[in-house]
Amino acid sequence: MHRLWSALTLASLLTACGGGGAGGTPAPATSAALTFSPDKVAISAVAGTTATATVNAAVARPADFNGAAVYAYLVDSAGVLLPNAQLVQDSAQSYHATLQTAATLAAGSYQGNFTVKLCRDSACASQFPGSPMQLPYAIEVAPAGSAPFTASSAAPLTVTMHQGGAAPAPAAISVQATGRSWSAASGAAWLTLSSTSGSGNATLTASYTPASLAPGQYSTAITLTAGDGLVATVPVSLTVLAPGFQLSSDGVAFTAINGAPIASQDVQFATDNAQATRWSAASGAGWLRASPSQGYTPATTTLSIDPTVGALASGNYSTSLTLTADGITPRQLPVSLKLVRATLLASNAAVTLGGTYGRDFSPRNVTLSLNTGTNQWPWLLSAVPAWAGSSAASGNVGAAGSTVTITANPAAAPAGSTTVQMVAAATVNGDIVTAPVALTINKDKHKLLPSELGVAMSGSPGWSRVTRRVTIVDNYGLVPDWTAASDQPWLTASGSGASLTLSADPSTLAPNSLNYATVTVTPTDPAMAAATPIRVAFWKGTASPTAPVSPHPLYRNIVADPIRPLVYAHNGGTTIDIYNVYTGQLADTLTGFGGALGDMAVSADGTLLYAYDLDNSKLEVRVLATKAVLARWPLAHQPDRSSRLTLLHPNGVDLVALNDGSIYNSAGKLLASLPIQGGTLSAAADGKRLYVQDEDGTAVHLATYTLDYADLAGGTLFAAQLPAATHLGNGSAGQDIATSADGSTLYAASSTPTQCSVLGTNDLGTLSYLPSGNSAPDNVEVGSDGRVYCGVAGKSAAADVWVYSAAGVLLQQLKFVPVGRQLAPRQMVISGDGFILIGLNDDGVLNIVPVGP
């Protein structure tokens, strides 16, 4: 039976064997490739059990191996062995094998030969020189139940020493010989036994006395013979090496980041014969140093690396340290060096000046770091554009980092987004390592932003509002610098910084007339864009209203003009009536709408009216001065009576927001779709917050969206929900919301609680309440003068509109609708000058109620 020894056995541990014919078992052409000790396997066993024997093998001709793969086969044609023979490499040229007899052997004597083949391939089509080989065996199997006779050592007796050095440690031989006498003999003079005879179980000590041996390989066996003829052998192999250096390492490997400190390594060495011998060490490369480089053994030398010698680049290097001493073969210690390329990192691989919106030109810091520990190396920063500057263009950098401050020069940058690639480069020995930094400048159009684009003024006996203050903001956050001029002599514009004051002198104006003026705000910086003109309308009346007026037609929806004393009303049809709120008279009518009308809004400067066309899923835009249709925008969703809209002006750009989440620009282009599904909308005066409150739900849900618009990438709208100000509010059945002029407060009307809520816009938390007579609020508005109007659904209430100051002080109560009727939800508005309150009853009656200054 052929047995192929596994990858952990002879096949993988031998490095080569020799010759042989193609197939079969031809006679060896040369002497055997291996020599075995003992040269005959002698094993004593007991039937029904296994016995173990050890055989040493020495390579006869190492040159035959030559690194080739070897496939070893043990042919046990008699089946006397278990198929688990293990061969263990003890040195480059010596091995030992452990053989176990088969437990199935019957009592008796077994003699024969094992055949060992050393093959070049798994099929053994070709064998190495000296193969196959014969290994004789003699196995004595005692009857079952007999006491075994064995001799073994705890570890294979395969040892190595150096000539003149200390002898190997003695080895213990365990003898199992119950009921037997025995004798023991060593096969060589260099191996002595503590006892040569005995009986029963015992332990022998085998001692090595190799002082007279020359360098070479020696093999022998300890043979034990029992009185009944059984034999047990223990093979012994001794290798005597010529005197040489003994090193703590067969090689030293350094791996480090190029440019970083490299830890030194110690090498201990002595001579084999333990004699004090003078030595010296020589390095094969300038970057390797040994200290000390001479002395007496035993010794320790410290190896250190200096990559600055020759300015080594990253990569792999090798050399050797040569140790020499009188009478001893020189020894070369391989030394390898792997230098890993250093990494230069920028704390920000991309730096943006101008911020997200192109208006924040604060400096930005970039920290360069190099993974070279405490070692610092020179760096340079290149390709810095004209529109940026750096606090340093060069320096030294290590792991602690080097910080560079990048500043913006927006005057030298074009509008929009511009990106360049700056490069930081560090020289580290023979390497140049780089870290690119993408530098972007976002530059929005620089402009002035008036807080109001339309201003309503009025004057009549006892009532007047002839002065208005408008805030001017520089969208870069700078102190505004500008001049202002009015195109009409009755209106003057003055001020500086953040404050523009408009003052009217109506003395020259005709009675009961509506007069217009345009105020132009011009920045002193010629590079800035001109501000959007401010349109001003002045109503000069001959009498102040004293009693409510209720025109006869019935309506469903109203909206106030922000600059004129006008209110626009429709009944859900295709026309819009326009009333003068001071005279209570129908002033004009807009006709020709394409379908049933829904919610409406008027632009902040009073130039445009927006209205839902419910039948045709459009938003119609009318020019109020000419009543002409400017556009009809197709909508993404079918609007209905619950569809709402509001107008915003973030960063001076006109936008239209719908309560389906759509946001359009002034040309009707859809810019964003927010996750809004119905509800009432209200926008902050600067257009940068959009608030949503659901309508008529079992709970009140409030949501806030931040908005901004920048002239980047052709114009970009930035919109996102503000989680801190998006949550459930107090009460139920939301009805209406309105924002204060300064944007700090959101007022909310809902069926419960029975008072209007005052919410902080940072988180929409409740700040206070505005009592409303324990009736359910369904309207809330903020006038241009800051007064807050809380309207309620109170059919039998003594008052249905409660007027408060911006500080929350109750100013007056108004009875808006007759008993038995109530305000229609979200159908209360304030005239642009803040003096007239207009609203619809739940039966569609339009009420125009004077409030006064």
TrEMBL record:
<dbReference type="InterPro" id="IPR013783">
    <property type="entry name" value="Ig-like_fold"/>
</dbReference>
<dbReference type="InterPro" id="IPR011044">
    <property type="entry name" value="Quino_amine_DH_bsu"/>
</dbReference>
<feature type="domain" description="BACON">
    <location>
        <begin position="262"/>
        <end position="328"/>
    </location>
</feature>
<dbReference type="InterPro" id="IPR024361">
    <property type="entry name" value="BACON"/>
</dbReference>
<dbReference type="Pfam" id="PF19190">
    <property type="entry name" value="BACON_2"/>
</dbReference>
<keyword id="KW-0732">Signal</keyword>
<feature type="signal peptide">
    <location>
        <begin position="1"/>
        <end position="22"/>
    </location>
</feature>
<feature type="domain" description="BACON">
    <location>
        <begin position="161"/>
        <end position="226"/>
    </location>
</feature>
<protein>
    <submittedName>
        <fullName>BACON domain-containing protein</fullName>
    </submittedName>
</protein>
<dbReference type="InterPro" id="IPR015943">
    <property type="entry name" value="WD40/YVTN_repeat-like_dom_sf"/>
</dbReference>
